[in-house]
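Priority: low. Protein: Pectinesterase inhibitor domain-containing protein. Input follows.
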Amino acid sequence: MTSSSSSGSTRRAVLKQCVASYKAVIGSFKSARTELSEDAMSANYDVMVAVDYIDSCESEMSLKNVQVLSMAERNNQYIICIVSIFLISALYI
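Result:
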C-alpha cells in the first residue's frame, strides 16, 4: 500500500494534507449541488475547482517523496469523475 523513503511523521503530515484536500473536494461538490438549479456556471466552476484540491494532495506527496499507491489511484479516479461531471453539466449550460 505505502512505499516511500520518507519518515512516518512526513507520511502522516502528507496524509493530513490530503485529508484536508478531500474535505475541500466534498465542500466543492456540496456547493455545486446547491448552486446547480440557480447558477449552473457557478456550479460548474465549483466542480472544476475540486481538481485543484486533488492536485494539491498529489503535489504534496510528490514534494515530500511520499508514495501512497491507493491514494494516487483514488486521486486519478476523482479526476475522471470530476471531468465526467464537468462534461455532463456542460450539456445543460
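The mean pLDDT is 79. The longest helix spans residues 8-35.
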